[in-house]
Amino acid sequence: MEILACRRPVLVSILKNRKLIKRCNTYSHIQQRSMSNIMLRRMDRNPLFKINNPQLSRHFAIMRVLNSVLKLRYLVIGSAVGGGVSVSKKYQEWKDSLPDLSWLEDIFPNNDVANTIQTSLKSIMDTVQNIDFAKIVEDISPIVTKAATPNSKDYKQKLEISQQELIEIQLRYQKELEKLEKENKELRKILLLAKNHKMNMRKVKKSLIDMYSELLDELNDYDSNYQTQDHLPRVIVIGDQSSGKTSVLEMIAQARIFPRGAGEMMTRAPVKVTLSEGPYHVAQFKDSAREFDLTKESELAELRKEVEVRMKNTVSRGNSVSNEVISMTVRGPGLQRMVLVDLPGIISSVTQGMAPDTRECIRQMSTAYMSNPNAIILCIQDGSVDAERSNVTDLVSQIDPHGRRTILVLTKVDLAEKNMANADRVNKILSGSLFPMKALGYFAVITGKGSQNDSIESIKEYEEKFFRSSKLFRDSIGISSQLTTRNLSMAVSDCFWKMVRETVEQQADSFKATRYNLETEWKNNFPRYLELDRDELFEKARGEVLNEVVNLSLVSVKDWEEKLNAELWNGISHYIIENVYLPAGYSVNQTNSTASFNTMVDIKLKQWAEEQLPRKSINIGWVVLKDMFKTMFEENQNQKLQASDEILENLKTAVIDEALTRHSWEEKALEMLRVIQLNTLEDRCIKDKHNWDQAAQFLTSTLEHNLKVTDSSLKEMVGPSNYEKWFYWQSSTAEQTKRNNIKYELENLLHSNPNHSNLLSKDEQITISNNLKQKNGTPYELDDIWQTWYLVYRRHYFKIALENAQNIKKQFYHYQESNGLQNEYYDIEMFWRITRMIKVTANVLRQQITNRELRRLHKELKEVLDEYSQNNEIKCKLLTGRRVTLVEELNKVKQIQEKLEDFIQALNKEK
Question: What's the pTM value of the predicted model, to 2 decimals?
């Protein structure tokens, strides 16, 4: 049953070879049907031959092959007029064009069938080879010579009859060929869908054009300082605006894939269309996975809309055309394999709404594509207008003056025949005698019936009908192969693959030379480094950055808490001294009651802990985390300086800074910290001597620091001392002398009353002002007295507090015996509460950092790295230099070279 199911694809696959069909039918009357052929067709339609009769089916398949091959008798008889030598040559060409039947073994599991067919074919070929063509010619020549003698009285009449018969033969040949092509297209689809059979030859043909298209995309993106240019062939479709060039491409692709416009420019960017063979008629963009079904009008409309949108997106603001290439692939059964590039149409003038340089941009773009010495120029000429109005032919003649790679296509021939008074102009164009432009071939096609909604099938039928009935076709028998888009596509495909085979190896050699140059440059300039491109360097930096977070988690608890303790006190010390300690201490001097100190401290600390302290602590913890991270990163870099890769530093720094900027402390930690701090500040009892000593030391160091700062500020205000004036040759300004005089009077006041409050009474201010005026003869402003008093009294208070703190250091046991009921220890109790709050806060922040924040920071670093990895602009900015660009260029050349070699191998395999 399997043999029966496969018999039709096998036999027609043999006949589908176009060279065999063309050469056989050129010399034969294909319309004549033999009796054996009729019998075979009847047997084929008879269901009795399709059921449980494998032996009969096997003989039936062999008979079909023999019947097809026996058509060689037409070759023998029809070629006799041409002479034995010509027939022998044609026979040899036909023999060489016979297909390789080795692939039948993949279809027929039984090898006997394939062997039988090959044996039969060999027998037939041997029989034909033994025919004496010379003798046949010798017997027929006198008859033919007599019939063709001009002196014969029936010569003219017979000549006319012969011409009519020849036209009829050509028309029948065209119909039969179209029928076979259509049947062959359906069979190709069936064979391509038969996944159970290993059609090796078909797979190569299907994938070869895709390999070539991908290679062209790679070369299109390639740019090199070594001037290695892309010289691989493409079919460049170029023509005047509205000449029908896009319609020609659509007829070749057999689908309306481009947006239509009524006289306006629709093609605004180059469109690369790769035609390949496939079981379904579909289209797909290079950067998209979606396939558009070209048999459905709805999806065709979506495809045209997508092409239009992509064209608009490629055109930047202020321009009308773009050089950015839109790549798509069109697959379908029976499509000729090739790569075409549709360019914007050549225009004569710029209309309203276009950029002023549009005309020149289009010409430059067209010239650039045609300048490729191996590009096939498909020059589209509107046949319905005067040839003298063409712009494109002059441009093409300049690029390809000898016409070695140009094919001229005359469109709208139906309108030309209808409108032109002299129809011979079309014949002159097709013969190459009208235009001074030279070309490889000249073709006439019809790509429309006048409506944008006409289907491809209806246009093809209209085109075939026109050329069958056209006066042009009747009067010009020799140009039949130059008519219809089918003949055009076959000719362009043959020319395309011929040029590909001739040039691809040269292109591969040029890239080998470029690769050698790049590798030599790398060895000379960067011998100690691996060849890592930008993406590989980025991944290397990713690992090093993430390792920094791991290293941060190895920081000891002691280091964290010491850093947090120091930063917490630095962050809150100003508020503690200025807003809590000094106001409470000044109140003791004013009221002579130490109870007021504790009351004020309790109120201020509680209010501060409820409103500002938690948020301030979290901010400090965040600063510590950031500083520790950066410090450790810098230290590690210094330690690894010899082994580190300096090209990664900018990237790693940028990633870390971005992650730290995005990072924010977990909000739920705020409320928990507030409760802990409030509870800690409420306990003022010092339970052991160790804590007492810590609090006393903290109090003493704080007072000493503030006293030193106050002394420095006061000295700056009053100027150098007498000692400094004498021994260091320093002098005071008038303002400093004035402040020094005020300081002297204020110090006398404090000396007379050491327990003076922090405020000066009105009488004291007047007294000091009068004393200064009497001594110096100039009045003093009260503001100057107040400013000097602030520092003088502040220093006086810190000195007294420091003396008390030093005395309190040794009084823990006295404090313990009194159970903390004596109020003279109020300042050390306050600093004990602050010390304990800082310690507890540092512990909580450290736990939050190590347990939560490092993990969140690690996640944010990953997010930043992922974002940067997708942003080529950022990677190019942060990873730059010749070392990077050289590797990327070298990798690109290697990739292109490998694809070239793979393509050459596949091309040779198909050949």
Answer: 0.58
